[in-house]
């Protein structure tokens, strides 16, 4: 994310307005080669996907939790829904 001072982004508006608001704060995609370090400094935010992928059958729900040892260091590695939907296939 680019540095910004907006306390929030209103996601309830028209799609074009929401998209424009997100474009103002989103940076370019960064793809790291395997083994390369990424430094996240205080006050910065990054969204990422894992290398791990899962394929669930249609009759099974998955559940994902972050590591508390990382959270105690101030790194929230999982801040979205815990549920992995039945039939999901892809990176988590």
UniProtKB/TrEMBL annotation:
Q: Which CDD domains match?
A: trimeric_dUTPase
Q: Keyword set for this entry?
A: Hydrolase, Nucleotide metabolism
BP terms from Gene Ontology = nucleotide metabolic process
What EC numbers are recorded for this enzyme? Answer: 3.5.4.13
Record keyword Hydrolase present: yes
PANTHER family per the record?
DCTP DEAMINASE
Its recorded name reads dCTP deaminase
Name the species this protein comes from. Acinetobacter baumannii
- Taxonomic lineage from the root: Bacteria, Pseudomonadati, Pseudomonadota, Gammaproteobacteria, Moraxellales
């Amino acid at each position: 994310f680019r540095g910004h001072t907006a306390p929030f982004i209103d996601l309830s508006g028209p799609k074009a307005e929401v998209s424009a608001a997100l474009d103002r704060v989103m940076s370019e995609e960064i793809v790291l080669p395997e083994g390369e370090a990424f430094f996240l400094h205080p006050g910065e935010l990054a969204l990422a996907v894992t290398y791990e992928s899962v394929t669930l059958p249609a009759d099974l729900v998955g559940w994902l939790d972050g590591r508390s040892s990382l959270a105690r260091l101030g790194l929230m590695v999982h801040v979205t829904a815990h549920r992995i939907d039945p039939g999901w296939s892809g990176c988590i």
